[in-house]
Design a protein that fits this description.
Structural class: alpha+beta
Helix content: 40-55%
Largest sheet: 8 strands, mixed
Order of helices and strands: HEEEEHEHEHEEH
Radius of gyration: 18 Å
Strand content: 15-25%
Number of helices: 5
């Protein structure tokens, strides 16, 4: 009986240790170096994200959750854009560019949209395969939160407000 308790204790300590490690690194993961090719042909790099709180959203026109969450992403962008917030939507490599352009134009997306034709950006950002996948990047260029699936927008807005209040350098 004592050995079962000892094993349970070791397992619990390991789980707590891993949890503490993950928690202690929260906000310390630098966003991967990437070059985003925007629909207009211009480029934006990860370094260009610094100085603003940025929502980076990997999505596809064929993803029903992505399409459903887009109005909330638009309203989030509009709510905070004048306060130092930006949004970058990255279309997955399997999404035909003509579908992406049509979606952006018909939905009047007010933020930058990138095409990840080669899949290299998704790979750099943790080998993103599931959409939507959303990353919140602070003013220092660090990923502080990621979501797979639609985020809880009330929680997301609280996080954005907290990050906007922080200084650009720490």
């Amino acid at each position: 009986m004592a050995s079962k308790n000892w094993i349970a204790g070791v397992v619990a300590a390991a789980v707590i240790g891993v949890g503490a490690l993950v928690y202690s690194n929260a906000g310390q993961t630098t966003a991967p170096q990437s070059t985003f090719v925007l629909l207009d042909g211009s480029q934006k790099t990860t370094n260009d994200l610094k100085g603003k709180v940025t929502l980076v959203n990997f999505w596809a026109t064929s993803c029903t959750t992505c399409v459903a969450e887009m109005p909330q992403i638009i309203s989030t962008y509009k709510k905070y854009q004048d306060k130092g917030f930006d949004t970058l939507a990255v279309a997955m490599s399997y999404d035909p560019p003509s579908y992406v352009v049509n979606f952006v134009e018909s939905r009047k997306l007010p933020f930058k949209v990138a095409l990840d034709n080669t899949g290299s950006v998704a790979k750099a950002w943790g080998d993103v395969k599931l959409t939507p996948s959303t990353f919140i990047v602070n003013k220092r260029g660090e990923i502080v939160k990621s979501y797979i699936g639609a985020p809880d927008f009330v929680e997301l807005h609280k996080l954005i407000e907290k990050l906007l209040a922080e200084p650009a350098s720490a």
